[in-house]
Amino acid sequence: MKYEGALHRSIKRRLEQVIEMAELVGLLAIGIGTALAMGHLIWKMTDSGGVTLTDLLLMFLYLEVFAMVGQYLKAGQLPVRFPLYIAMVSIARDVILRAGANTELHLVASAGAILLIALGVLLIRYGQSRYPSNADERPDERAR
């Protein structure tokens, strides 16, 4: 019976190591894929001899993916704000790419989506500052 607890802890520790390694491999794959995609975009821009706004927005999206990977490596968790930023830039890029084919409804819907996402980011930021998850980050109750 006394070895049962040690065996359980050992198995749990091994599973945690496997999961951690899988996360690192996944982050490495995302990082390499993003770097390759960004390199391909830079190659395409130099080959065409011009840079468009959509190219710049796409590079910004790649940088946000790098920031997400970096944040995950540093903190071990991913703030939900990063994908929301990517969503806002993606919608803006879609509007620019469809510049000639956009209908009024599409523009209003896209602007509304960006606005809702931005409000969501503000709400999340407010919640994080007002109600932090770590006790040592909580504001002093006497300061209010």
Report on the structure:
The structure is a single chain. With 144 residues, the protein is mostly helical. It has one domain (3-130). Helix content is 79%, strand content 0%. The protein is flat, with a radius of gyration of 22 Å. The termini are far apart. The model has no long low-confidence stretch (mean pLDDT 87).
Topology:
Elements: H1 2-48, H2 53-75, H3 81-97, H4 104-130
Helix pairs in contact: 1-2, 2-3, 3-4
Briefly say what this structure is.
The chain has four helices and no strands.
Would you report the number of β strands?
A: 0
> Which structural category fits the helices and strands?
mainly alpha
Helical residue percent band: over 70%
Beta-strand level of the residues, as a percent range? under 5%
Q: What count of helical segments does DSSP give? A: 4
Q: Tell me about the largest β-sheet.
A: none
Q: Indicate the mean pLDDT.
A: 87
**What is the ordering of alpha helices and beta strands?**
HHHH
Distance between the termini: 54 Å
Give the C-alpha Rg: 22 Å
The general outline is flat
Enumerate the spans where pLDDT stays under 50 for 5 or more consecutive residues: none
| Total separate domains | 1
